[in-house]
Target: GCN5-related N-acetyltransferase
Amino acid sequence: MTIRPATPADLTTLVTVARQAIYEAFSPAKYPGNPVEAFLDEYITFPHYAVAMDDKRTTFWLAEEAGELVGFLKLRRHAPPRRMAERNALEIVQIYLLEQYTGRGWGRQLMTFALDYARSQGHRAVWLGVWEHNLPARAFYEKMGFTPFGWHVFPFGGEDQHDIWMQRMI
Model:
């Protein structure tokens, strides 16, 4: 797997893979009644990602295997939640792999890349939000050294869901 920065030329492929990976992660087959399609239609769109790509505080990184996009990272520099003591932190907004590429250690590689990138940019911590019912992701983040420090309401397809905030010092 190689990881490289996304460019505007990658927008179509990035949105396509993001929609597929997020659908696979939160599909009604795994979470009956979860409004994943509504969330995708509202937030995982070409206009939303184009705006994010144009935001100097946001970076996208693409994970590729044999030239094919298999996952991505979305990182954002902005103030962390007030409950987080360390203020010099980078948010991991999204970290996804297509389902067929999970279980190969590539999620760990993406996370390690995010941590190394944050460190190289002078940050002392990273933070993220994870849906309270996404037990596999929560377990992965805990294995990667993240600890919970609070929660917030996350709008997901017309529902208010609870995301647990997790942090890790680097």
Q: What stands out?
A: The mean pLDDT is 96. Residues 86 and 142 are 18 Å apart (CA to CA).
